[in-house]
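JOB MANIFEST
job_type = single_chain_structure
chain_count = 1
residues = 435
[input]
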Amino acid sequence: MTSTLTPGTPDTSSAPPAPSAAEGAEPTAGQVARRRWRASRGVLAAVLGLVVIAVILAALRPETSRQNLDPQSASPGGTRALAEILRQRGTPVAVSRSAGDAAERATSTSVTVITRSERLTQSDIDRLRRAPGDLLLVAPSRRVLTGLAPGVQVASSSFEDTDVPGCTLQAATLAGSVTFGQSDTYEVPPGTTACYHAEAFPRLVRLRLDGARTVTVLGSPRPLTNEYLDDEGNAALAMNLAGARSSVVWLIPDLPDPGSASGDQTLGDLVPFGVKLFFLQLVLAVAVVAMWRARRLGPVVAEALPVVVRSAETVEGRARLYRAHHARDRAADALRAGARDRLVPLLGLPRSAAQDPNAAQEIVTAVAQRVRAAGAGAPPGAAQTGTFSTGPDGRLLYDEATIGAALYGPEPADDAGLVWLSDVLDDLERQVRQS
């Protein structure tokens, strides 16, 4: 950086500009608070919106009652109507409140209907696996699927209301169209009967185990409940599945004793669905805010320096950085590049040749001719280092090899060599100007 002075004008480059009244005034507490509020109100609004959505979803989500799927309950979520229809048709229904009682009641000619499976412990699942007869799992948990329906896994959730069978299972084809509402869909192993597909995944699955024993998985409890039993073919499907054998053992387990299910459930099983949905929305909101607040990378914008710095201070500061890091190579390259930039116009060469390696020999030859015209020789008293040739009087001989080493040579071996290089480049430029 250099400064140019007009004759008669005082040098004010070293004096910092006087701050204006607006720049020197400290912001007040109110201004700081308003600035912080403007910067954070978008994020706060997004968080508040998420909280409101979570509260609304929690309020709209149907409450799970203790009487849901209970054959002795006449509430909308109970299954008393289905149990009474089965009894009227000659199929007795035995209600069990524990897995041990259900296993004892089960026979080879019975269907054990398992509801509220999230209350079952691992020991309960093992006991039911050894029990005889067929199984009907109503919206089972992942642990129950793994233990009682091997190979069947939950794929996703579906909210399609009504669907047709789309399979050859007699219980489904006789029922026809059925309303499911919110339902789990499943991934099934080969050879499994799959019905009522939603996005390629079934909501009703039947697989055969141990020869004659069958396990049926129903992804939604809605077709069995009092409220929806008379919709579409719900009653027919429920009767065909639960009443397929001579008797029914209906298991609706009570809550296990505190600590008896310790370690049976994963963190995902313990977290309610509404909480999972809230965190999913939070992640999406953070991603949207991040994209909104992101800065697009564009071209570099030149800005005025906040203060005026004298060119000598800049040179001295950079020189100190070079010296602190022993960067003699970078310092030498800077000296040589600056010398070539100043010499090329004096030699009548294009400015682009200064940094063009292909023009190095042309520049060296032209400088040698100009130096010979001015009279070769280094300045008296110049420190001589390196392998350059000297005359009988100890003066440096400016032949083409010497000039080439000065303009394009290797890194100086020490600080003295760097100082010597600076003196030689300065003398070369002086002699070219004088030639």
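[summary]
The chain has 15 helices and eleven strands.
The first helix runs from residue 21 to 24.
exit_status = 0
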